[in-house]
Design a protein that fits this description.
Elements lengths: L7 H42 L18 E6 L5 E5 L12 H14 L7 E3 L2 H4 L13 E3 H10 L3 H12 L2 H14 L22 H14 L1 H4 L6 E4 L2 E4 L4 H4 L3 E9 L3 E10 L2 E10 L2 H22 L11 H8 L19 H13 L20 E8 L2 H14 L2 H6 L1 E9 L2 E11 L1 H13 L5 E4 L10
Antiparallel strand pairs: 1-2, 1-9, 3-4, 5-6, 7-8, 8-9, 10-12, 10-13, 11-12
Helix pairs in contact: 2-5, 2-15, 4-5, 5-6, 10-12
Length: about 475
């Protein structure tokens, strides 16, 4: 058989056919390859866009450091020692002091009772340590949850209490910030009930001192629970993280805290020579270093207070219902008499302080106030909020005043004061000219109607110039 290309005419025919075939199929192949490349490129771009989720924690640029401290006389509100006390810091578990403040308020108003059983939600059960370890669907009493906060600093217990009082932790955080404003804590923002890391949750050493003072002033009947060095819970012993209770003479509360962003924090109070001081140390490198710094600062603070001859500490009066609640809180812890025996400052310390005071500027003994007008000394008020808008303050005050019992409303006055706090202007809404009994009873009535308030005695703590 002769091959087709052996004949010239046939060879030309087959050569032309091959050229035609190449011309018609090559573009299709190139197009297919190009399309495949485009599909691969698109897939690569899609894969590149789907990045891993970013971390939920990011530094807050307004928090430029960790360290700060403040020592304040609890009776007069006078600042004795301080460093960076106005600068923003992360509170860590000091946050739980506000959670406890609102818990105590709910106990006094009757919205909670110590033996109430509260459900443990998924969010509470899944809280990171430290915690009490109560499982989802279980229940825990208000008493156990509160003591879990005080001793073990339990995050799950904080969430349980928050959800019981406000329906959700987010709602509760808003109530916490609102109450902070009422107490003059102008720089503090709360985002959760526990102090777990949140870039927006910030405070100052001065604001934490105000909160500690508010706990002493408003809930003297519950304050003794902060001195519990341990608490028995379901066959376990929850040890208190606050080692100063055992290691510093006169110490009787309050709370420690730690996160990587905050460092080691501590708010404490102690009594010596009938004087009470409140101390705040933030940003310690270790718990031991923080405690050692606090002990040194408190020693110096007591020497200052003695040299200044500041007035001694006296516990506020306790309402009958409050005394009953306190007596049943924890067996063996019945009231503020549990405070340790006073330890006077040594003559050497006092002489050293007098020498330093002669060389120091007079501003070292300034009162810790939140600004505003000066009502008559010793009067009591019901504060229903501090607002950025004056109209909002007026509306809140009208609502609160109309909800008060007639005898209290008849003897009172209403006031919206413009005050400067942390370089911001607030409009503070207050019902004024009240006795202590009227303020406490009125605030209890308002809180029963979900109008949150604070009963305050006008002192240097909340009004400069008042004594």
């Amino acid at each position: 058989m002769t091959h087709p290309f052996a004949r010239p005419a046939a060879g030309l025919f087959w050569f032309a056919a091959c050229l035609f075939l190449v011309a018609t199929t090559l573009p299709t192949a190139v197009e297919a390859q190009t399309s495949a490349v485009k599909r691969a490129s698109t897939k690569a771009r899609t894969t590149k866009v789907a990045r891993p989720a970013a971390s939920t924690w990011a530094p807050n640029p307004a928090v430029r450091a960790k360290d700060a401290y403040l020592i304040v006389d609890a009776t007069t509100g006078r600042e004795l020692l301080s460093d960076h006390a106005e600068e923003l810091r992360h509170p860590a578990s000091l946050t739980k002091l506000m959670t406890l403040y609102l818990t105590f308020a709910a106990l006094d108003s009757g919205r909670l009772s110590l033996d109430d059983t509260l459900p443990v939600s998924v969010q509470a059960a899944n809280a990171p340590p430290t915690k009490m370890g109560v499982g989802r669907g279980a229940v825990i009493t208000v008493r156990d949850a509160a003591m879990g906060l005080i001793t073990r600093s339990a995050n799950d217990a904080a969430i349980v209490l928050a959800e019981a009082m406000a329906g959700s932790e987010d709602n509760f955080a808003r109530l916490m910030t609102q109450r902070a404003r009422q107490l003059g804590m102008a720089s503090t923002v709360f985002r959760n009930a526990s102090g777990l890391p949140s870039r927006e949750q910030v405070t100052t050493a001065r604001d934490m001192a105000r909160l500690a003072h508010a706990l002493l002033r408003d809930f003297p009947h519950y304050y003794a629970v902060f001195s519990a060095q341990s608490y028995g819970y379901r066959g376990r012993v929850l040890e208190n993280h606050n080692r100063m209770l055992a290691n510093y003479a006169g110490a009787d509360g309050l709370k420690t805290g730690y996160t990587a962003a905050s460092g080691f924090n501590l708010v404490m109070s102690a009594v010596r020579d009938d004087r009470r001081l409140i101390g705040v140390v933030m940003g310690g490198n270790t718990a031991f270093q923080r405690d050692r710094q606090m002990a040194d600062l408190m020693d110096r603070g007591f020497a200052h207070a003695h040299a200044l001859r500041l007035a001694g500490w006296q516990w506020p009066q306790m309402p009958a219902r409050a005394r009953y609640q306190a007596a049943h809180f924890v067996p063996g812890i019945a009231g503020p008499a549990l405070a340790r025996a006073p330890q006077p400052a040594s003559p050497t310390q006092v002489e050293a302080v007098l020498a330093s005071m002669r060389a120091a500027p007079a501003s070292n003994a300034a009162p810790v106030g939140d600004g505003g007008a000066t009502p008559s000394a010793g009067s009591w008020v019901i504060q229903v909020g501090s607002f950025a808008d004056s109209r909002a303050a007026e509306l809140a005050l009208q609502r609160a005043s109309s909800a008060l019992p007639d005898p209290i409303r008849a003897n009172s006055a209403i006031s919206v004061d413009e005050v400067q706090m942390a370089h911001k202007t607030f409009h503070r809404a207050r019902v004024t000219n009240l006795s202590q009994e009227e303020a406490l009873e009125g605030c209890k009535r308002l809180e029963a109607r979900k109008i949150y308030c604070a009963a305050l005695e006008v002192t240097a703590w909340n009004t400069p110039g008042a004594r």
